[in-house]
Amino acid sequence: MLKCEFLVSSNIPTIRHINNLHPLILLFMKKIFTLFCAVLLAGSYASADGFWARSFVTITSNGTLYNYGIATNQTWTCDGNWVSNTVFDTFDFGTPTTLVLNGGYGESGSYGVDDFIDASSFILYYRAYLTTGTAGSWNSIPLNNLFYSNGDRLTPTSTLNSIYNNVSAGIDIRALVGNAVGNYTLEVVLAKTQYWQTTASTWITANGNQTAAYVPATTTGYKATFSVSSTSGVELKKVPSLKISTKTGIINASFEGTAQVEIYTINGQLIRSVKAESQFSEAVNKGAYILRVNGDTHKVLVY
Q1: Phi, psi (degrees; rounded to nearest 5) at 202
Q2: Model pTM?
Q3: In sequence order, what are the residues at sequence separation of 6 or more whose Cβ sits closer than 8 angstroms to the Cβ of residue 179?
Q4: pLDDT tens digits, residue range 170-210?
Q5: Residues 238, 296 contacting (CB under 8 angstroms)
């Protein structure tokens, strides 16, 4: 804990001498002293939350990979330098055949030994929903890969810039929303936890600044839009005699002929994609899944 103390020597006033001063002078000195200590304390904690640089998401739309600055038109190259890029917020993807959220990047600065971030610091939250509907709960992608670093936090006077990423999440947004025709919102927010000694604080991206504490239930993220029409997405080829069933730990589908079958987690992450002849079977854990057969989407519950 930071302490503010008077030094006692033959040349420096002691507390006893100070107490003999005029009451108004003494009050003034106490106020100045209190303000001085407050400034020192504020300075000692000012770096507890480090600082943001920019952050971005990486998305594959119709087979082409794009990097989108979440709230500004800047991102970085692999050496940490900034370059101009597309803004995710308010972007319209049109009517994509495929739309995959690969993950994202987060960068933060820290100061010295006590102030730091690590592989647990960045989490990208996302959700997709009908624009006229209810947003629903957040899904998450940990950005736990150290992509770039320019310093050493073990050096007390060092300023360390670090970039963490995860670009292999493979969240199929089109599978996540299904085939219902309409206009959709893809919403994202990036949370950063900064550690100061044994404490931590978490913030969300807001134009690159740490301006609000992150509370998942109340946070509004950055929003892009896309549409699903009767002709968008994978062309639907109805599979004759399609039957879907589940038993303990297994999803089964039977049909006539050949079909392209994909199974996803309920959050849109691809588990398996295969061209199957007359039947499909996949062992899974208990929970909810998305099964797509020739582009026709079904939600399946496994007990």
Answers
A1: -120, 140
A2: 0.71
A3: 228, 233, 236, 295, 296, 297
A4: 999 998 898 889 999 999 988 888 777 667 666 665 444 44
A5: yes
